[in-house]
Amino acid sequence: MKKIKIQGTQIHDGEVSCINLKTKMENIINSSYKNVGGLIVLKNGKTLYEGYFNECTAASTFHVFSVTKSIISILIGIAIDKGYIKNINQKVLDFFPDYAVKKGEKTIQNVTLKDIMTMTAPYKYNSAECYEDFFASDNWVKSALDLLGGSGKIGEFRYTPLIGPDILSGILVKATGQSVLDFAAKYLFSPLDIHVEGNIVFHDKEEQLAWYKERNASGWVSDRAGVNTAGWGLNLTLLSMAKIGQLYLDNGIWNDKQIVSPKWINESTKKHSICREWKLSYGYLWWIIDDKEHSYAAMGDGGNVIYVNTKKKMVVAIASFLTPQVNDRIRLIREYIEPMFENYNFNMK
């Protein structure tokens, strides 16, 4: 991405100068989205706006929470592209031949990667009560497998923010013979010049809860077995988030190199299931925002977002700190950011 300088440019109504546009954008953030740490707007691969708030800078790192899921989706796609995984319809237990299925358990034997990635796999837990036991275990993948299946039906949407996605991390480790972070560094992060420093391991509940409040934490959370989380736990800079969005907008190409196939990008960012509670469609760990414009997003707690609008050739990345009851970032993007920037004219300098 090449940063550009904009001089005296006006948006489509011919009234708002670029200076006023920047001021308006920052007034909106400061008044209604106070936990935002940074925001980037790209169009056609060029930076139209890059701003930082709450004492953050371009070097600041953010826990992106469930944006991590979409990164895992990319890694699964790369693993399929490279032949480590046959296809999205493989049975989950094919990757865990030593896992002992409990007597009478049948559903778990039919769950596929696609079921987990579209949030249509059933689980045995119904509340957050099991989270403490889950995080206290040394092996989060096995703990997630133990909760997979039960009496629920495969095919019914059930969003699982923490327990469940870790199975995909286990699959990546089993299929590639590498840690998730090592695989990501080799095939995704390094080509995009994204730096994730190493694993973060918690020794107790208090340490984990304290980490949630940290700013500028680096690395990727893993269990004590060394398997990185799939539903949360990754720390990225704002620019790294924007690079991921631009990679997808450019059909998986970065610096003339194919990082992930266009086939996977198209398949993973189209509707495969639907969350009726939030009235949003779901792809392979990506939220589908608008079918007509082929816009989709990685979204995490606190208002962390990587948003891609294929029709408008726009990418918006928003990095935020975790606070309760944040205002809707997709509304911010659709109602304010896109109308402000989609017809922005600029001169290269």
Describe this structure in words.
The chain is α+β, with helices and mostly antiparallel strands and 349 residues long. The strands form four sheets. It has a nine-stranded mixed beta sheet, with helices on both faces. A two-stranded antiparallel ribbon has the order 4-7. The chain has a two-stranded parallel sheet with strand order 5-6. The longest helix has 15 residues. The two termini are 14 Å apart. The N terminus is likely disordered.
Chain-wise SSE layout:
Elements: E1 2-3, H1 18-32, E2 36-43, E3 46-52, E4 61-63, H2 67-81, H3 113-117, H4 131-136, H5 140-147, H6 166-176, H7 180-189, E5 199-200, H8 205-212, E6 220-221, E7 235-237, H9 238-249, E8 253-254, E9 257-258, H10 262-268, E10 273-275, E11 280-282, E12 287-290, E13 295-300, E14 304-309, E15 314-320, H11 329-341
Parallel strand pairs: 1-3, 5-6
Antiparallel strand pairs: 2-3, 2-15, 4-7, 8-9, 10-11, 11-12, 12-13, 13-14, 14-15
Helix pairs in contact: 2-6, 5-6
